[in-house]
Amino acid sequence: MLYSDHYSTGCGCSRRFMLKKKMDHKNSSQGSMDDKKYADALEIAMQFFDVQKSGKLVNDQISWRADSGLKDGSEAKLDLSKGMYDAGDNLKFGFPMAFTATVLSWAILEYEVHMEHVNQLEFAKGSLRWITDFLINAHPSANVLYIQVGDPKEDHKCWEKPEKMTGRRPLKHVNTSLPGSDVAAETAAALASASLVFEKNDSNYSSTLLKHAKQLFTFADEHKGSYTESLPELAKYYNSTGYGDELIWGASWLYHATGDKSYLEYVTGENSEKYGKADGPTWFSWDNKLAGAQVLLSRLSLLGDKGTSGNSGLEDYKQAAEELMCALLPDSPSATSGRTKSGLIWISEWDALQHPVGSAFLAALYSDYMRTANTDKLSCGDESFKHSDLRDFAKSQADYVLGNNPKEISYLVGYGDKYPQFVHHRGASIPVDATTGCSDGFKWLASKKPNPNVAMGAMVGGPFKNESFIDSRNNSMQTEPTTYNSAVLVGLLSSLVANSDSVKSLRKK
């Protein structure tokens, strides 16, 4: 959990990527060395999903992980054993978990060829399905969604591996009396986007995902309210600052998944005024999806979509996306001042890398949309920029994470020669053969020794604005990794392992 506990060292992961036949690199500003760098980093980043899995593990690639949470959901007679722990503790939060699934789906849909190019596509799909299986089971009826497994207060009294949990695992849910439009619409986005991923090879599963997505969006729209207002005790952990962005995001994905114009009208009609506008660019994160929706809807304008002809409302989203791109480009007259001296986008001291990586992923997507559409001019005030400028920005943020920074440290655990050794992660910090109870495990949190297990692929919180970084297990602000940040990083790295045109439509049919 972002404001709680984690970290690790010592992997036992056997899979490696294999670079397939070279793809076309026309218009690419860098060659095969970058391909290898980003491919290697992608293979490592993908492994953190295995580190975070709950349930009965299949083909477990992480030597220090084993089955856990097998009875999760039992108090409601549901199987909620799957899914992923959000960060370094042993809790499952539906809001960020659904965001993880949506972003991972988006990455697969846009960069499926890239992932296959480096033998990571099936791993990505497997991780996605591990989450969507959970989300389906968490939605037992049209207007009920289970959104949390485990009690944060009780969980944080312990420092123990998930395999050794002994405490009760209570559940939280939203319904018509306790609405949660944000978490329901985000879950709808996750299931709608995932339905596209599985549409070609598993049509029955895809149809099931889409059925749940439609029900959840209707629930979110007809029973409006924020889940952290309905359940204020949850606000300390993943507080939602509003549900309008999730409604736009969810409807956008449902349009892509179905082609149903009612979803397009939802985002471009009166809801556009209520939920689709902001005073300047916003930052893409687990809490705010508006920037992501703006870029996603821009693909309809830039790449063309038969169902959108004559819809002028899409232009507002495209203009907002361009404002964001102009804010990200360092030489733009409207460039954001929220950066470190080395050029890393920097917005928050908590989990600092989420914003630059999320921004870079959106920039890479928009760059690819521009190139595919033969639109090679982005106007920022009196200046104009090319799609390659956005790609260069995306690379700069990725390179910073991978070690091109003043500390010369890779913030991706397992990548490079120097990376954090004291990640705030319970399972990674406790030796495999240790027998600990709830509270006596805290000696491993306080230990001065590096983690005995490597949390392979974890992207830690990252540096402060002065670019300092303290590698300490107690420094959860900087050393805690999260599953949802890994999804955005996987998207970014997938965009960079090769250079190819965007697919015209996310629908396979």
TrEMBL record:
It catalyses: Endohydrolysis of (1->4)-beta-D-glucosidic linkages in cellulose, lichenin and cereal beta-D-glucans. Its EC number is 3.2.1.4. Keywords: Carbohydrate metabolism, Cellulose degradation, Glycosidase, Hydrolase, Polysaccharide degradation. GO terms for molecular function: cellulase activity. The active site is at residue 424. Coiled coil: none annotated. Pfam families: Glyco_hydro_9 (PF00759). PANTHER family: ENDO-1,4-BETA-GLUCANASE. Belongs to the glycosyl hydrolase 9 (cellulase E) family. This is Endoglucanase. It comes from Hibiscus syriacus (Rose of Sharon).
